Amino acid sequence: ALALLLFGLGSRIDLIMQQTPMPVMLLSVCFFIIILLAATQDIAVDGWAISMLSPANRGYASTCQTIGLNVGYFVSYTGFLALNSNEFCTKYLGLGSALMSLGNYLQLCGAVFLLFTLWLTFAIHEGRSDYVTETETINLSAIEVYRRILYLIKQTHVRELIMVLLLARVGFAVTDNVLDLTLLNRGVPR
Predict the structure, then answer these.
(1) Dihedral of the CA atoms 58, 60, 118, 27 (nearest 10)?
(2) In contact, 37 and 5? CB cutoff 8 Å
(3) Is 147 helix (H, G, I), strand (E, B) or coil?
(4) Whose CB among 47, 110, 118, 144 lies 3.0–4.6 Å from 6's, allowing a Cys bridge?
């Protein structure tokens, strides 16, 4: 689903970004769904890694995730901005214009997601794990997991915790934003 959404959005994002006024609500909904699907996939892969790895090797899962996250940040930010820049592509790559638009990049990400998902589905055979017993595993569909999450969110204490976490920084927002400007006005260099 994530790959298809990235393909679909990639084919239209350049036109959407040129509209005036920009449809912020549409973009917000699209990127919320992308983040929701990516977070769901991340949780599934974490659970899969825990069930497949021996207890001695489970520490490597977080190391691999951290390395992959940093590589992803670099490719997504620095790599995309460089390949999207006319100046960079002309000066360093010898091209006449930018190599990649935002739409092309989203479609490339969709292709990468699709290829890795197909590779994991058909090429990796996990077999039976000796590290997790049958009583420890519960097979739930994604819909059932989201139903359970909604049930938990409806609990009074969870809602109170959510409100505290959402509102905890409100009291400091003015200080956080105005402090830098005040320091600059008083002559403190950046």
Answers:
(1) 100
(2) yes
(3) helix
(4) 110
